[in-house]
Each structure stands twice: as structure tokens, then as C-alpha cells.
User: Fold MFS transporter from Paraconexibacter algicola.
Amino acid sequence: MVTAQTQDPHFERRWLILGVIGIAQLMVVLDATIVNIALPSAQADLGFSDANRQWIITAYALPFGSLLLLGGRISDLFGRKRAFITGLLGFAAASALGGLAQSFGVLVTARALQGAFGALLAPAALSLLAVTFTDPAERGKAFGIYGAIAGMGGAVGLLLGGVLTEVLDWRWCLFVTLVFALPAAAAGSRLLHHLPSPMRPPLDLPGTVTATTGLLALVYGFSHAESDGWTDALTLGLFVVAVVLLTVFVQLQRRAEHPLLPMRVVVDRNRGGAYFAMMSAGVGIFGVFIFLTFYLQQTLDFSPIETGVAFMPMNLSIVSTSILVNTRILARTGPRPLIPTGMGLAAVGLALLTRIEVDGGYATHVLPSLILVGIGFGLVFAPAFQGATAGVAPQDSGVASAMVNTSQQVGGAIGTALLTTLVVSATSGYVEDRVPGPAVAAEAAVHGYTVAFWVGAGIFVVGAIITRLLLRPGVLASPHAAPAAAH
Assistant:
């Protein structure tokens, strides 16, 4: 008897494929933070100004956030294997260019290329996972592993960046990408089959232009607000352009014969709740990574390597919780009780972080919070990734996967701009009423961090309430994607 599984050339090698997808996902996620640790060394080497330093981060975020929907649709139309391999090789080439950079301009160009190829790679990886694992039990395990990798990747980037910068050189924070990308591309070329899509409608050019430009304006608007303020004319103009273009995009998608983002993908309550959960987590998580990193290094005098090790309990909590949830719990409960609970735990963890002091201790003031936040993220990420792709037709799995990453990227841009602005304002306000000095400066910095942690906790509380209202009770729908549709 011929079954869908025996017809699927990926079935027998599905766990090996998961390994390749996991490596690719880890590479994309950690690359968003690994360069942060290397920035001071890169700045000293290449001689660029403090004002230009943010562009090393922004140059990656802008194309990545704005091109994800296009990247997802390309993988649907032209094949997930092709998009996946092209994304890996392009990302590797861009990383090599950045590692060899002898000027600020070349480094920024390399980071922009990394973001563009990441926008092709990330949705292809998640959609490959979605269509390769269709058995509910195996799907839970696979998404648990994937969610754990996505959740811990940022902290792994901090640790790896610290080790490479201290032991070798900042350039190895870029060169190390080749260690991930090239073996993954070679393995993917052998393990994956190109199965042409039965349908290849024309690309929605009006939708592509409005979505890409609108997302670009939105992400850049938040980045510009971080450096130049929320009332700056360019910041306000970018937000207006983003709102107009994204509104036009939605109207175009409702009428288009072959839309870039079919509205059926996002109007489902579970998928909408999953996208909102990822955006909320993207906003709140920056309160952990950015400002806790500053606190550990600048206040407690941790080295970059010690800082990376300090985040490991959170990594372990994310991994263990994600795998447990997706293998033992999600299939019985569905995402509704899990995601809001995870956001609630993350809120408690961030609220506890507000206890930090200038002379505080890691074990007493930081460690309990990291464990709680890790458990919370594990409850959010794994169900959100699976919920965002559950019940999606094969021809839409790439763009549905892209929406997960787009939500997280937009959330990250919001979080970086909002929390940085609040920290700067709180820190300067604290200093104004006191006699300047090293002790006051340290106290002001800690005060600013606690403000960020309180706001992050509040964001998670709001996220918990809204996802509780959006998500449907009951288990997730069975995937519509048959394994043989993987391409």
C-alpha cells in the first residue's frame, strides 16, 4: 500500500533534516546578538564613530525585517530547498565579507547582505519543518527542539561572541558563521529534494512593494527613534509612511488574485495569537538581553565570557521547557493555557530583576529571574512556532512561517527603541537631582535598567491577556500540508 509517508522522499531522513534546519536557525538567531559583543573591538579596529555604531545592528535588522514576507513567498513559489540552500550560501558569503572588512562601509554592507539572505533562509527553514513533520507526536518533538533553539539562540550568541572576541578576534564573530552555514548547505543539498510546486502563480508585485517598503519604514522608524527621538521629523515621517503603506498592502491583499500574504493565513485566531505572542516576546526579551548584559558587565564587572555563561541557566530552562511542552503537553491542551502562562512567568521574572543593586549578587538578584524567564519563554516559543503553521495549506507555509519571524523582528525593533529611550531618560533624570560622581552614575544606570525591566514585565502582562483572548481553547488543527508537498 502506498501512503503519503512512503511517497515522501524526506520521510526516512526527517530527523537528519531537523538537525540541518536547527543549525540554520541557530545561525540566524545568534547572529543577531553575537556581533553586539564584538562592537567595541570592531570600532577600535576600524575607527568608526559612536554615532555610526548602531548601523552595525540596524543594517542587519532593516533588510531582515522588511524582506521576510517576500522570502517566505519565494520559498513557496520556487522551492523550499532552493531558498534554504541559497539563503545559507549567501549568508556565509556575506559573513566572510564582513569578517574581511577593512572599512566601516564594507562591514555595514556585509551586515545588510546577511539580513537579506537571512530573510530568505529563516522562513524556508520553518516551512520545511512544518511540511516535513506531520505526525502529531513527531511534530511536537520537532517543534519543541526548534522552539528551544530559537529561544536560546540570542544568549548563545552572547556567549560565543564573548569567547571569540576574548580568545581570538572580533572578526571571528563573523567568520564563525561559515562553520554553521557551509556544513548545513552541504547536508541540505544531499538530504533535501526539490519537489516543484504544483502551482506557481505570478508574484504579487504591488503587494511585495508595499509590504517591503512599509516594513522597511516601520523598522527604520523605530531604529531612528532610538537615536534621534520619537518626535524627530524623520521618525514621525517614517511611521506615517509605514502606516499608509501597510494599510494599502492589506487592502491590496484582500483583492489580489494571488496575494503575497493571503488573509486566510493571519485571520485564524490561533495563528494571529501566535504572531502576537512572538511580537510581544520580541519586545520584552530585549529587556533581558541588552540591559542585563550591561548590568553584568558594567556594574558587576563580568567579562564577556562570564556574561555569556551567566545566561546559560536561562538557555537550559528554555530547552527543557520547550521540549517538555511540545512532546508531552501541547497535544493535550493546545496553546491557549501555555502561551499566556509563559508570558506571566516571564513578567514575574522581569519584575524580580528590578531588585538588582549596584553591589548585588548574581545568585541572589539575577539567577532566579533567568530561570523563570527561561521557563516562560519555553512555554511561549515552542507552541507559538507550531501554532503559527498549524492548519496552513502547503502553498502558504512559507509566508506563514515568514510572519512568525516578521512579528519577532518588528517586536525586537519596538523593544530596542522603546526600552533604550526609557532607560536613557530614567538614567539622566536620576542624575539631575544628585551630586555627580561615580557612585551616582552607577546608581543611575541600575535605576535605568530597573525601569526597562518593569516596562518589559508590563508588556508581558499585556501579551498574556491579549493572547488569552485571541487563542482558541482546544488542541491545534492537524496540518493540511501533506509530506509529499514539501519542496
